[in-house]
Write a structure and sequence with these properties.
The complex is a heterodimer.
Chain A (H helix, E strand, L loop, with lengths): L3 H32 L6 H20 L4 H23 L2 H4 L5 H24 L13 E3 L2 E3 L1 H23 L1 H11 L1 H6 L4 H27 L6 H15 L4 H21 L5 H15 L13
Antiparallel strand pairs in A: 1-2
Helix pairs in contact in A: 1-6, 1-9, 1-10, 1-11, 2-3, 2-5, 2-9, 2-10, 3-9, 6-7, 6-9, 10-11, 10-12, 11-12
Chain B lengths: L1 E12 L2 E7 L2 E3 L3 E5 L6 H8 L7 E6 L2 E2 L5 H6 L2 E4 L11 H12 L4 H16 L14 H14 L5 E5 L7 H16 L3 E5 L3 H7 L2 E6 L2 E6 L1 H4 L3 H8 L5
Parallel strand pairs in B: 4-9, 4-10, 7-8, 8-9
Antiparallel strand pairs in B: 1-2, 1-3, 1-5, 5-6, 10-11
The chains are: A mainly alpha, B alpha/beta.
């Protein structure tokens, strides 16, 4: 049944979840632009973020400090990424390899399996839900779960911080330079290996943040990152690999299309509407909304 | 003492000896030309010296300490910077940002003010001032060469600049600007090694040249002297003039 309220409610819900999807896509695109690899274990960093959130709330901080736990989860995944990158990814750049992409794919899929198994070994195959003290909130005329509203607020804040770091700081300038010409950055004196680790850490921290924010809604279990990762890659196809605006616009677009489909067509097929959108984009703009045709060698 | 010295620098690609025991020594403040026919191993030599590639044997000494096998960014931080035949600039950064990257990569304590003062000076000398806020990808080939050279001059404490074919394919006006930039830096104490096929420019600005032929140093000295040597002429022309 069509009604204006339902349409508005659906659009708002779509944008809200879309912003969180965009965090994942942004992480994937960002790591790809700088480190020149696809991180297939992105969902497992989402999963790590959600587990840290649960452990921090349940065993240390309590439900009133859920927001502090969010910061802890983000910082935690950042740190894990920062320590793992030199160990797993750096070898790909140190010695010129013939099949760089294959190396990155194998290593990150191995990491994916390892982290999932670790989650099962430590937490068991159970679902957890980190608590919050958030009440139902009113978004205009609409009642919404507090956790969902705050997830969007935090995600928007994170995007603002990300924008600030990338456009206004030295780290951002160095990362933008590296994304455009790695060798020139090196000969300019930029320690590209250290910035690889920073970029990887920022990328996975975005996933960890998404995991922590969505944990009260989508729960915490060993494979909870899988669906969100798929969304992340759907967004990459929609927006174009390597494009930051593409990740943001693609994320919101996917969220809105899924919500509209679920509300006005049939809700069990919610995940399928995204794929329909992906197919449509592939037909009309195979390189994505913001992607460039081909890329420099 | 020489500011940059290589001994026995050797690099093999399969069966090809690209560099075979190359020894070159630059004294503080000189502008040395490095010439030789295509395939003589000049670019390989530049790559070995600046850390882009690792030599199979031999040593690179900068100011008396070994920098052999250092990665490019460590070589740069130690005071040895290179430019590329095809200018490598950051296309989606502004001209000004292009110059900030090399500065901040090694010097972040003295802050933005001294960086900006230096940038203003270089932009004026290079005539790129009106383009300071344009994206580097909008520059012409020659302007990119100028920008690349300026980027090298932005790194504080650089002692030696290695320029690989800086004059290739750029118009005469830009060439003169680039030469002035180089001479200006040289006045300030920087040492240069310039790989080039432009004999006129080499004659003008390089008191001494090194000639490489088939991966080896074949001759060294003033260009006038070297140009009279039969082996050098033969290598360039395929036959002697006589």
């Amino acid at each position: 049944m069509y009604s204006t309220e339902l349409l508005i409610q659906t659009l708002i819900a779509g944008v809200m979840i879309g912003v969180l999807y965009a965090l994942m896509a942004l992480g994937i695109t960002f790591i790809y632009s700088i480190v020149r690899m696809i991180n297939w274990a992105m969902g497992e960093f989402y999963m790590l973020g959600s587990y840290i959130q649960y452990v921090a709330v349940a065993y240390a901080l309590g439900r009133n400090y859920w927001w502090l736990a969010i910061l802890v989860s983000t910082a935690g995944t950042f740190l894990i990424g920062y320590l793992l990158e030199p160990l797993l990814i750096k070898p790909m750049h140190v010695r010129p390899m013939e099949r760089r992409d294959d190396y990155a794919t194998v290593v990150t899929i191995a990491l994916l399996l390892m982290l999932r198994s670790l989650a099962v070994a430590i937490g068991g195959p159970y679902q957890y839900r980190p608590e919050t003290n958030l009440p139902i909130m009113w978004v205009g005329p609409l009642p919404m779960e507090g956790a969902r509203v705050m997830a969007t607020v935090f995600a928007l804040a994170a995007l603002a911080v990300f924008y600030f770091v990338i456009s206004k700081t030295w780290i951002g300038l160095a990362l933008r330079a590296m994304a455009q010409n790695r060798v020139a950055a090196q000969t300019s004196g930029v320690d590209v290996f250290r910035f690889d680790a920073i970029a990887f850490a920022i990328g996975v921290a975005l996933a960890g943040l998404a995991g922590a924010l969505l944990a009260p809604l989508f729960l915490v279990y060993p494979t909870n990152g899988a669906v969100t990762t798929v969304k992340g890659f759907e967004i990459i196809v929609i927006g174009g690999l390597g494009s930051i605006p593409g990740a943001l616009v693609g994320g919101v677009l996917l969220g809105v299309v899924e919500s509209l489909g679920a509300a006005f067509i049939s809700s069990p097929y919610q995940n399928a509407y995204g794929f329909a959108l992906v197919l449509l984009i592939l037909l009309i703009r195979p390189y994505g909304l913001f992607g460039e045709r081909g890329r420099e060698a | 003492m020489s500011v940059l010295a290589t001994t026995g620098l050797t690099k093999r690609y399969g069966g090809l000896m690209a560099n075979d025991g190359v020894a070159v020594a630059l004294t503080q403040g000189e502008i040395r030309g490095l010439i030789g026919p295509n395939g003589a191993g000049k670019t390989t030599f530049v790559n070995l010296v600046t850390g882009i590639e690792r030599p199979d044997a031999g040593e690179v000494m900068l100011n008396g300490s070994a920098i052999t096998g250092f990665g490019p960014h460590r070589v740069a931080k130690n005071g040895l910077v290179r430019s590329f035949q095809v200018a490598r600039v950051f296309g989606n950064l502004s001209v000004r940002e292009n110059l900030l990257v090399p500065y901040f990569a090694s010097e972040r304590t003295s802050g933005r003010a001294s960086a900006l003062a230096r940038i203003t000076e270089l932009l004026r000398l290079s005539t790129l001032e009106p383009l300071a806020d344009h994206l580097a990808k909008s520059l012409s080939g020659g302007q990119r060469m100028l920008l690349q050279a300026c980027a090298g001059f932005m790194i504080p404490g650089v002692k030696v600049h290695v320029l690989d074919e800086p004059f290739a394919g750029i118009n005469p006006v830009v060439k003169d600007t680039l030469i002035e930039l180089i001479l200006n830096e040289n006045q300030a104490g920087a040492t240069f090694l310039i790989v080039s096929h432009e004999m006129e420019i080499i004659r003008r600005i390089c008191p001494r040249v090194t000639v490489m032929i088939a991966g080896k140093v074949a001759a060294e000295g003033p260009l006038e002297e070297i140009a009279r040597r039969d082996d050098v002429v033969t290598a360039y022309l395929g036959r002697s003039l006589q």
